[in-house]
Design brief:
Distance between the termini: 19 Å
Structural class: alpha/beta
Strand content: 5-15%
Largest sheet: 5 strands, parallel
Number of domains: 1
Helix content: 40-55%
CATH architecture: 3-Layer(aba) Sandwich
């Protein structure tokens, strides 16, 4: 299965603190794991705002993701145009672009956010 990993799950994977419901998605070698530049950007912004849950070096995270076999899913105009068609269930721009990327590319978005999980392209883990 092709999975786009949301920002919090990327952070938890890096810290080795994944929720129990997520571990098998990360450890299943049949799954292809993707990350979005939007997640790296979100981490940079929230780290600069001194959010305690975003205090990771984004450069080290980026390198670690690539070294561990994650694929980067670049943001395209098609993705940004898909945002306009999403229902207003979730207003967070970072989450909305992740949802749009997953929807456009036929991926599942792996998330722990109950609001995001209301979109049909998502898999909720707790």
């Amino acid at each position: 299965m092709k999975l786009l990993i949301d920002t919090h799950l990327l952070l938890w994977a890096a810290a080795d603190t994944l929720p129990a419901g997520a571990i098998h998605y990360f450890s299943n070698e049949d799954n292809e794991l993707f990350f979005s530049p939007a997640s790296i950007w979100e981490i940079i912004i929230k780290k600069e705002l001194n959010r305690p849950d975003f205090q990771i070096d984004p450069i080290k995270l980026y390198r670690g993701l690539l070294e561990n076999g994650y694929s980067e899913l670049y943001i395209t105009s098609r993705h940004t145009l898909t945002v306009a068609s999403l229902p207003q269930v979730h207003k967070d721009p970072f989450d909305r672009i992740l949802i749009a990327q997953a929807k456009t590319e036929g991926l599942k978005l792996l998330t722990s956010d109950k609001t995001v999980s209301q979109y049909p392209c998502t898999i909720f883990v707790s």
